[in-house]
Amino acid sequence: MTQPLNFSQETRVVQSPGHVETGVGVDELLSGNEKVRNQRKRAARRQREQRPKQGFFRTLVQVLGELLITCGVILLLFVVWELWWTNIEANSAQQAAVSEFSQDLQGPVTPAAPHAPADFGEPKVMGAPEAPSTVFGVVYIPRFGANYSRPLVEGVGTAQLDTLGLGRYDSSTMPGGVGNFAIAGHRQTHGAVLDAIHTLVPGDKIYAQTKDGYYTYVFRNNQIVLPTRADVLLPVPTQPDAKPTERFLTMTSCNPRFGAEERIIAYSVLESWQPASAGPPAAIAAQVAANQKG
Amino acid sequence: MYGWIFRNLPGPLWFRIITSVLFLVAAVLLLMQFVFPWLSQFNPLNDSTIGGGV
Fold first, then answer.
1. Between B2, B40, B49, which is nearest A252 by CB?
2. Contact call for residues A281 and A214 (beta carbons, < 8 A)
3. Which of A230, A260, A265 is facing B47, going by the closest CB pair?
4. pTM, 2 dp
5. B33 lies in a domain?
6. CB-based contact A186:A192 (threshold 8 Å)
7. Which residues contact A27 (CB under 8 A, 6 or more apart)?
8. Overall average pLDDT of the A213-230 stretch
9. pLDDT at A139
């Protein structure tokens, strides 16, 4: 009497796990979501517990591999940061510095009449700023774009060049001074202020603006040297014993464009200057006005 | 490793996905704000000055 009953119970027991594993039956769906979810969770847990135990070596290799992949991704991210994000950051910082400097300036922003006297005598040379990172001027280079204007800052440390653009070597003279006014800027990254330095053509104008006025330099030539050639910064570049009579502007940057094995040096000579009261040179008047507006 | 972390995060699946995305974003921000600027000083490709410590 009991045997057939037992047998039938056993058949039900055998059937039922198969039933659960094939998924969700109509009756379960009808009986509500809660039950189905619980069943799925249980099935997932069972599957997890059935995962074969990994050996120590296998786990070690897996973790090591994932760490190495992570390192690779981080390095890629660093390249993206260096070549792309630093430019965005530095451009906005430099834009802000230029506007802040320009808004403090007095003086007309319209160029002088074409027949006004062009000779203002000896250029006025301002004293060197006392603290590094002081923004004391703006450089305009129309060859690099009509609205190219970058702050001129004291010092060539990473703190200055990485955020504020063109740094002045504090061993050099100030704009307009007899001797060598030497500045450095990044070729790539951090604003890439001198990226196009190799496109300068002899005769191109480089304008430096300080609170005293505008100094117009004319590009003469460039030179590619090794990073140790500090003599390009001498009062007469590369001539240690010469007594300076001319007013040079020397710009230094990395060379080649995505490397630093060499330096590219661009030499220019002062052509003219005009005080702030005379207004900016016509070629940069629009940009000076735009900067002053903020 | 990451699989183990993901399995051991608390909460249901959607919550664990959100948590992992947050962790990822936090890691990237941390790298961009602090680690990379510091690392950048050791990058020799950046040096545009001449004569070393002038």
1. B49
2. yes
3. A260
4. 0.77
5. yes
6. yes
7. none
8. 94
9. 96
Residue count of chain B = 54
Residue A41 identity: K
Q: How far apart are the first and last CA of chain B?
A: 48
Provide the 3-class DSSP secondary structure of residue A216. strand
Burial class for A140, CB neighbours closer than 10 Å (0-12, 13-18, 19+):
buried
Kindly state whether B48 is in contact with chain A, defined as any CB-CB distance less than 8 angstroms. Answer: yes
Q: Is B13 on the interface with A (CB under 8 A)?
A: no
Provide the b/e sequence for A251-270 (b: ≥16 CB within 10 Å): bbbbbeeeebeebbbbbbeb
B54 assigned to some structural domain: no
Domain holding B26, by residue range, is 2-38
CB–CB of A225 and B50 under 8 A? yes
Q: Are A140 and A209 in contact (CB under 8 A)?
A: yes
> Tell me, what's the pLDDT at A41?
76
**What is the model's pLDDT at position A113?**
65
CB A249 within 8 A of CB A206: yes
Q: How close A275 gets to chain B, by Cα (Å)?
A: 30
For B1-54, write each residue's pLDDT tens digit: 899 999 999 999 999 999 999 999 999 999 999 999 999 888 877 788 887 543
CA angle A244, A245, A247 (to 5 degrees): 90
Residue A117: the pLDDT is 62
Residues 6+ apart with CB under 8 A from A94: A150, A151, A163, A164, A165, A191, A193
CB A222 within 8 A of CB A264: yes
B33 interfaces chain A, CB cutoff of 8 Å: no
Number of domains comprising chain B: 1
